[in-house]
Fold this protein.
Amino acid sequence: MPSSFPWGKVSRYLPAILCIITLNFFLVHSMPGDPLIHLLGEDNYGRIRARNPQQLEELRAKYGLDDSTLAQYVGYLRNLAVGDLGWSYQYNRPVLDVILYRLKWTLLLLLPALCVSGPVGGLLGALSGMRGGTRFDRVLTPVLMAVYSIPVYCLAFLFLLFFAFYADMAPLRGMTGGARSGDGGVWGLLQHGILPLSVVALHAAAYHYMIMRNSVRLVCAENFVSNLKARGFTDRYILFRHVLINASLPFITAFAMQFGAIFSGTLLVEVVFSWQGMGSLIYEAVRLRDYPLLSGCLVMASLCVVPVNAAADVLYSLVDPRVRDGVTFI
């Protein structure tokens, strides 16, 4: 690891993580009513209270609810440090086990979408920005601007309506098998995943396109680009050897800032397509009032977003030494 590695920038994210964890703790504990209701769920709480009220006191002592708020907060941090996010009463399993199982299905949509949308959207945006005013730019820019203007869940409904319902090109819901696909395994997963993956990738690519196009347009207005053109260098050479190096810095910043929106958008798309990832899990936790599960999902979602921003901050500093010791833009 080079000595110039910006540890100071990375360390600034530790207070952010602590604030997220603290907010998550007090958000649950500030809910009105008995905290055991939020831990057990209203139905379980009512049954236990009717049959064995003494068990409620035992559970209150077991979970430390008879301690002070500060003692409960310290215990909450201690449990998080060892990976204990609580117990899901709806699934009757540790919250961490439920989340890790569902998280892999969310990443199965999110990571390929990012791997496609970033390079494709960035490349198209660079070409469009370098050739501003051409037919390529005049056609592609309003189309992708319209795509990005549509909320991602609305875009998911449109894809579901036209490609799954009318065109019958993909299953309407679920992840594998079913009457529509007639197949499970990898092939069934691909059939069910193509539409939600396309929605997330297209919406993210539209955003990356706009950011890169505007960044390239700003760089092309610099004097050194005019000098290179006057010396007879082609647009392709100028773009890939000089312009992209400077235009990629704002793109990296915007990509990291947008990751949280892409992540949350993926959760909404999952609900539309009944994809059994984190989005559907959060929806189920809210609907079933499984508050330990909901609290764990919020913590895990935050912990997935913050490291990406920290990595982009580090990458920005390594790519541009001028801001290595300056102010971060993430």
About this structure: Residues 178-183 have pLDDT under 50 and may be disordered. The longest strand covers residues 87-88. The longest helix spans residues 235-273. The radius of gyration is 24 Å.
